[in-house]
Amino acid sequence: MSAALKSPxxxxxxxxxxxxxxxxxxxxxxxxxxxxxxxxxxxSVATVDGRSYAHANATTHSANAQRSAAIMSxxxxxxxxxxxxxxxSRALYNSIATxxxxxxxxxxxxxxxxHVLCVCADxxxxxxxxxxxxxxxxxxxxxxxxxxx
Length: 149
Prior knowledge:
Blueprint: H1 10-36, E1 40-47, E2 52-57, H2 65-87, E3 94-98, E4 101-107, E5 115-122, H3 127-148
Antiparallel strand pairs: 1-2, 1-5, 3-4, 4-5
Helix pairs in contact: 1-3
């Protein structure tokens, strides 16, 4: 039988199940965040290569998970490159203030550093609280992601 037709090894299957469980835990954490904080319009986790990992929209908002993930990962890469170039320093997070609210992005501080969190809040939430929420959520998600490995 060729390698392409072999069924996955038990270790590979177990790894896939654990990975899906971690992803669902992250999804649940984002949904819980939106339930607790009505000002948050959406929260999204992307992989650094631009794929959606977990996403939650408020009932009044409909951000596209895959499009958001692609933009988030590109923007985070630019932010980190510019921070290194301009100040020879690592970017801690990025915030964007708009007329309709704020956007905060942070690299999730897991061991692999392969995920980015974005939290978007409406104008009723102040920027400082959105930053604090994003940093706290990123730390929580890092624990879930690191528990997988």
